[in-house]
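G., the chain you wanted modeled:
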Amino acid sequence: MELTLGNLITVVIALASAVFTYGSLSQKVRDIEYHRQECLKRFEIIESDTDGAVKQLASRIDAQGATLNQIAGKLDLFFQYFKKD
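Predicted structure as tokens:
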């Protein structure tokens, strides 16, 4: 195989194309990794906000349960007195 100007130009174009393609794909991978990290940060913020809301709702539900137990106790006491009369 002879080394001609046409063959040399073809090889150079192929190498330049490969380098350009590698650089382009590498940049896209870096962009995807950056966006993934940003999404993870957002998810952590959302999760911490949600955890706080869940804890607040749990404490409210516990308080309502305690109130219902007090009401049930008072009703039992009322009916005990009512039965005596």
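The chain has one helix and no strands.

Shout if anything looks off.
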